[in-house]
Amino acid sequence: MKRTLFLLLCGMLSMLAVAQEVASPDGNVRLKFYLDGTRPTYELAYKGREVIRPSHLGLELAKDKHASKGIQETDLMDGFSISDTKTSAFDETWKPVWGETAKIRNRYNELAVTLGQQSTGRSIIIRFRVYDDGMGFRYEFPQQSDLNYFLIKEERSEFAMAGDHTAWWLPGDYDTQEQETQQSRLSEIRGRFEKAVNWGNSSVAVFSPTGVQTSLQMKSDDGLYINIHEAACADYATMHLELVDGQTTQLTTKLKGNSNTYTPDPTPSTYPLPAPMTFVSHLTPDATGLKGCMQTPCNTPWRTVIVSDDARDMLSSNLILNLNEPCALDDTSWIHPTKYCGVWWEMIVGKSNWHYTDDYPSVQLDNIDYTKTKPHGRHAANTEKVKRYIDFAADNGLDQVLVEGWNIGWEDWANMWKRDVFDFVTPYPDFDIKGLNEYAHSKGVKLMMHHETSSSTQNYERHIENAFDLMNRYGYDAVKTGYVGDIIPRGDHHYSQSMNNHYLYVVKEAAKHHIMVNAHEATRPTGLCRTYPNLVGNESARGTEYEAFGGSRPDHTCILPFTRLQGGPMDYTPGVLETQLKNWSENPNFVHTTLAGQLALYVTMYSPLQMAADLPENYAKYMDAFRFIRDVACDWDDTKYLEAEPADYITVARKAKGTDNWFIGGKCDENGHKSIVHLDFLDEGRKYECTIYADAKNAHYEHNPKAYVITKKTVKKGDVLKLTEAPGGGFAVSLMAK
Ligand code: NOJ
Ligand code: CA
Closest ligand 1 atom to the C-alpha of 543? Predict the structure, then answer.
């Protein structure tokens, strides 16, 4: 007994002897690093409260004959000693090409620990950056003779929670994020998992009943907001988190989904499970089941923890952008925030189609002459209709018109394992690509390109040069891409290392052609838009389209800014003012917000790319409310989050770029909300023309969604606006400097 106590004491003393601490510039966030025996370990605290309890760091490597010239791999999990530590401070202010603010301060204190593994002679660096609003760390692998090529079986970064927090989570899935967010205690995830999966999505692969996606937002019982995500995920697989909840004996990887792309179960880890309520990183595998193919020198993405006792700090945090590399493009003058409408919503709702003919059970692009086929008459992307959309955009200050279904191949395109599905250059016979672009340009509008890849990624890469050349020829400068269905080559997943490389390849190739990219179904963003600002949007969550498929809960858009938007903007496609679809189509569904709530989204869901999603004929019925969509900016000099609580409400004020005009948006959940907005942020001595678009007294997202009131008055700094949001509602305010 005495001997055990002695050894324990020695252990604790040696541990303390090597503990390294680094605090944030304001001293509120404190990071501690040490070796637990020989395992790298860290802890995080905020204002003296535990955020991350002692958590191990490391990677398990695959024992593969191809790795490191046939050498049997030794994991990078333990057997380490500290060979060097370096601390430094950094403080710089940079200007994003587009964003929520004109300037962003990047200020942190850094600790870089070099670890040597005696048994292999290998060394790695774990680098921590500690900010006033959280922390990021990553693994770095310097080039060295004994660590050259290696394969990752699993990354084992732990995040031990200090309690059974409330979490807003999505089921961890290798292929989709288009689920409704669940709100529950961590201990309740397992019991709710199965029902939380969106089994109807076109590609689903879940791996563990306690696997969740990032960005994961949590709240502790004593009011700490904690968010875990990642930054700068490039040449690496997307990370999920698996919760050790005390009910499991090993980390699971039992794949379940609706696809044929099952990867083999890797052999379970032999390392001991961490304590209950610990998240362990879980990477997306490739088609072989492996998680990463690495060549040194290289590094992992940053693993991020944002923390505050004020929910508004979660939304104003720039930690993820700051952990990304500066802009890699020399010339960014061609990148511009864009407001657009599109030949889109009517197809999603089911009134018209992407495809042209019903003549064939399937098509092969080379063997079909569309001019000789019989059109079914519901093809939306026809010259006459597109002209109407162009006219609407030109009359209403919208920059671009997206046209989907313009190119041949839509007759059969998803989940057929069809390789040569689209060529991205041949229009259907009723789409005059040259004439329409000329018409649009004559009216000061551009068409927006659409490239649905049907997840046939090699096909897209084969055609991409021609496809971008075509865009340059006709004057397109933005493309919406899409990855519906299981990934081809078969067995790969949307969020694997190879797919993440594909998405970035597309963005880089697009930049060479001065093309902006908005990628749907691609991996969730991790701030790479700082480095490649032509990545102006992503979907990577449940967008407005789901309102036509059955709906999303009213609190959905009061959660997304805390979760999905942490890594970058979302092409959420708001602005459906005719919220009851049955009024103009056979679709029985309705949009789960009030009309005023739709307007609010242009301010609360930050994006440099904003769609006016509804049809011109629907907007014609609500032109007074549409005025806000015309007026609202999509690029900002300043942003103030005024009120926020995940899944309840968000109120934000933004100053339009290069002007003195402000716009305010407030969005709430199904319970309604009362906002008191102090106009303290306005310029001293200046008057503003204030237009308020609010829910009427009896408005309700379900039974009275289109009851709104528009009021105008003159306001000045210090005035107060009292606004009532209906259940599922919101408000929008424009403040035009006089
Ligand atoms: C899914 C996208 O999210 C949607 O916007 C698009 O219209 C369809 N795929 C077709 O590409
Ligand atoms: Ca709520």
Answer: 3
